[in-house]
Automatic annotation (TrEMBL):
Residue ranges crossing the lipid bilayer per the database entry: 23-49, 61-85, 105-129, 250-270
Region (Disordered): 157-179
Name of the molecule in the record: PhnA-like protein
Domain of life: Bacteria
Protein keywords: Membrane, Transmembrane, Transmembrane helix
Amino acid sequence: MVDVIAVETTATERQVGPSWGSIFAGAAASVALTILLLTLAAGVGFSTVSPWPGTTMSAQTFGIVTGLYLIVMAMLASTIGGFLAGRLRPRSSSTGDEVYFRDTAHGLVTWALATIVTVGILGSTLGSLAGGAASALSSAASAAGSTAAANASDGLVDTLLRPGPNTPPASGAPNASGGDLRAEIGRMVTRALSPGGAGLTAADKTYAAQVIAARTGLSQADAERRIDDTINQALATADAARKTAATLSLWFAAALLVGAFSASLAAAAGGRMRDE
């Protein structure tokens, strides 16, 4: 009789493994709650955007609020999913630390599955929208692509060639070749702002300053100063966009870590309630 009981216990222990039913249930709840919270965030975010100047939060504030919301959203969705996975997992013959490990492992796997499904849903949705727009507007996008590339430095060229305050353009300005001069300066600006570029060479800067001085009536020194200020402002704008993207990526990584931790702890708590 003792030998039979030992064999039955061993068979029961061998049957203990991941409870995929509880994992899928927790992941489904987590994904649904994540989509709900993302939809809520989109609605609130659009309500804070306004075309009127001075009524929209700054980019820095928006980045911080978005990052904090990502963390709170990950914590809530992962906690619900992990708790359900631990609470619904069948009891096993294991005791003590083994039960705690199995519960937390179920929570972690639930978080991983929910993350993969959420990224897949969002990626496929955005991909289908982008694909439909691309197929419907392929010709327009092709034409607009070259136009956008050409217009990338137009605003900077306008700033460079704008007459100074109370300074009329010089009478000897080369108006006949104005279009060619604009294109040439635009190419210089594009090279100066290209990733990994070395900026304007001394010869290009001197030549551009001479052209700007002739077109705007500024002195050579003021024209060179305008070139430096304009390029530095453009570089600062690009650097701010880079920092914003990097900060949001770090916030997203932090949200994932918080979600994994929350799901594991919630699954352990659900397991304790299951065994009571």
